[in-house]
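Example pasted here:
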Amino acid sequence: MGMLASLLGATLAGPLLGVGWVARRIAEAAEQEHANPARIERALLELGAALEAGEIDEATHDAREAELLEELAALQAPADDDPEAAP
């Protein structure tokens, strides 16, 4: 019975471990994309185009632009408590 239980356990654990690995890779990719300044720059360009096209008003543009610029500044600023950022 012990060998059968071991075999069944490995059969069930394999796919679950694979799903966990895929989930970690997806989370890492999402984090890298979120921390990408080019994403914010694209959003700023799209925001300007939306304003020019009349899709959004000036207040909406200004509010969203401030959020994006703040996010960009946070990405570009070195972290004071990050040991990898220190020389």
Remarks:
- The longest helix spans residues 2-34.
- The helical segments are 2-34, 37-52, 58-76.
- The chain has three helices and no strands.
- Residues 37-76 form one domain.
